[in-house]
Amino acid sequence: QVQLVESGGGLVQPGGSLRLSCLGSGFSLDYAAIGWFRQAPGKEREGVYCISNSGDTTYNADSVKGRFTVSRDNAKNTVYLQMNSLKPEDTAVYYCAVKRGVQTMPCRGSYPMDYWGKGTLVTVSS
Fold first, then answer.
1. 1: pLDDT confidence band, cut at 50, 70 and 90?
2. DSSP secondary structure string, 16-56?
3. Phi/psi zone of residue 15: left (φ > 0), alpha (ψ -120 to 50 degrees), beta?
4. Cα 98 → chain centroid
5. In 3D, which of 125, 126, 124, 122 has the Cα closest to residue 36?
6. How far is 97 from 38, CA to CA, in rounded Å?
7. Nearest of 49, 48, 55 to residue 32 by alpha carbon
8. Which of 30, 33, 38, 126 might form a disulfide with 92, Cβ 3.0–4.6 angstroms?
9. How confident is the model at residue 107 (pLDDT cuts 50, 70, 90)?
10. What's the pLDDT score for residue 45?
């Protein structure tokens, strides 16, 4: 029953902004830690931004610090990743993922999250 659906990816020019959405179903945001991850071509999956079950930021990668932020809309069961000042190196498939029944989790790409979305491609290019 748990499902995560990402949306909002696409082609954007360097310096532009994009907001990704992760619509969740079958679980409560209050009982899960949530993370945004990405996998660039030829690279391993990495943690980008993770929040606790209360919405507090637990991790954001140095490479995106000051440019990316996460927010939640509990009424819509949706988590957002706001990406500003995008750079070509941000090009990747972005995934949201959930770890149920915990407050926090290690925000690394190899961590066994319970559920993953299928991802949405973000391409930053002129």
1. confident
2. --EEEEEEEESS-GGGEEEEEEEE-TTS--EEEEEE-TTS-
3. left
4. 10
5. 122
6. 11
7. 55
8. 38
9. very high
10. 98
